[in-house]
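Lecture notes, part 5. Sequence design as translation. It can be helpful to think of inverse folding as translation between two languages: the language of shapes and the language of residues. The source text, in structure tokens, appears below.
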């Protein structure tokens, strides 16, 4: 078997050579050995006459190889489009060099795969589909809904299609015009409404309309990252715990709504706020820190929890589990950069922390909990800050002394 490799390589080199004569290629294209004919079919450049020979080769694999080449002459593609083998016609239908007239004929092919390949062919004018879409089978119309971009005229027809499965497929389209989404939102089928509510491309105004339908649709709107703050604030007032929990987890939920939900009657809603809030204002932190131990236990796990709140729970929380969780994060999850930023924000070792009816200075808390390195880091940052202020003041005094007395008096 190995002895044949040099022969094969030599034959491939000869076929791919720029010096090979047309007559030689024609002879090789009808060679008895299929592998030789396949080498010809895979040659980077072929004359039209050789393409014509290979298009009627007895091997399906060779005809298929020819059908998917970008450089096949249109006349050869016409021949391949009428091939008896469905795989050959399938590859021919995908070829963007196929003449439009032949593509249109392939739309009536007996095999669904071939028809769908034509629909996906960018060379097929959208006007052809627009003219014929109403008479096409349901599965074919569903395949058209997957085109992106989708012609606006086709889109408006398909969102009003009499078959619900076609309209259902349109609900997930990522790039329709707003008016098309609006038409879908007016569909009376609840499945259409719910699927559309899950589409991340659905405009906020359409989602707001959908939020007025059944509870399942409202929940899906609440999960949609495209839902507007106004819509989410409205949904937060419904007496449905699952819905309000979904509102909490949406990044677009406004701060005022989060403050409202942080005091919700459902403990699960409050715990969700504590665990997932991305922007924790002092007011929100105060509400959650005053919650029960379960809420504080979730709050301490929030990655966005301010260091000040975490220190309060680590030093003063009356629940041992919460305090331990807070301490664990302080020891292993807080970087030096966070401590430096904390001091830069105005915190000092002498600041008092108040929590659970107790109080303690930051310095005493750090020492009591054995956070010596953190104590020293804050101390060094405070000292560096005082030195910087003194240096700035000194430079200012020097600048003032160098100024003419009349100018200093004016200042």
């Amino acid at each position: 078997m190995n002895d044949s490799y040099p022969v094969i390589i030599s034959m491939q080199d000869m076929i791919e050579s720029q010096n090979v004569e047309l007559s030689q290629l024609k002879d090789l294209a009808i060679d008895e050995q299929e592998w030789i004919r396949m080498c010809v079919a895979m040659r980077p450049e072929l004359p039209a006459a050789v393409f014509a020979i290979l298009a009627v080769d007895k091997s399906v694999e060779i005809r298929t190889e020819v059908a998917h080449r970008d450089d096949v002459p249109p006349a050869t593609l016409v021949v391949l489009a009428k091939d008896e083998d469905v795989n050959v016609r399938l590859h021919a239908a995908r070829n963007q060099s196929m003449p439009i007239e032949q593509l249109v004929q392939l739309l009536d092919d007996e095999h669904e795969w071939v028809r769908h390949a034509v629909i996906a062919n960018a060379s097929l004018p959208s006007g052809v589909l627009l003219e014929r879409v109403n008479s096409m089978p349901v599965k074919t119309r569903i395949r058209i809904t997957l085109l992106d971009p989708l012609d606006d005229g086709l889109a408006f027809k398909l969102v009003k299609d009499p078959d619900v499965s076609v309209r259902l497929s349109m609900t997930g389209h990522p790039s329709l015009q707003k008016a098309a989404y609006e038409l879908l939102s007016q569909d009376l089928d609840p499945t259409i409404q719910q699927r559309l509510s899950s589409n991340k491309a659905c405009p906020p105004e359409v989602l707001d309309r959908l939020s007025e339908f059944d509870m399942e649709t409202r929940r899906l709107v609440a999960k949609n990252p495209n839902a507007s703050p106004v819509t989410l604030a409205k949904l937060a007032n419904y007496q449905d715990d699952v819905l309000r929990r979904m509102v909490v987890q949406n990044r677009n939920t406004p701060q005022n709504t989060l403050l409202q939900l942080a005091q919700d009657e459902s403990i699960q809603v409050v715990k969700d706020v504590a665990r997932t809030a991305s922007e924790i204002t002092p007011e929100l932190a105060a509400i959650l820190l005053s919650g029960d131990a379960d809420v504080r236990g979730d709050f301490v796990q929030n990655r966005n929890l301010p260091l000040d709140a975490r220190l309060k729970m680590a030093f003063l929380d009356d629940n041992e589990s919460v305090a331990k969780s807070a301490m664990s994060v302080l020891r292993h999850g807080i970087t030096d950069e966070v401590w430096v930023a904390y001091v830069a924000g105005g915190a000092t070792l002498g600041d008092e922390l108040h929590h659970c009816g107790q109080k303690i200075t930051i310095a005493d808390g750090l020492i009591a909990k054995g956070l010596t390195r953190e104590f020293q880091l804050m101390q060094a940052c405070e000292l560096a800050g005082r030195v910087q202020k003194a240096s700035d003041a000194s430079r200012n005094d020097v600048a003032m002394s160098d100024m003419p007395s009349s100018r200093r008096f004016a200042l």
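The translated text above is only one of many valid answers, since several sequences can fold into similar shapes. The CA atoms of residues 48 and 73 lie 6 Å apart.
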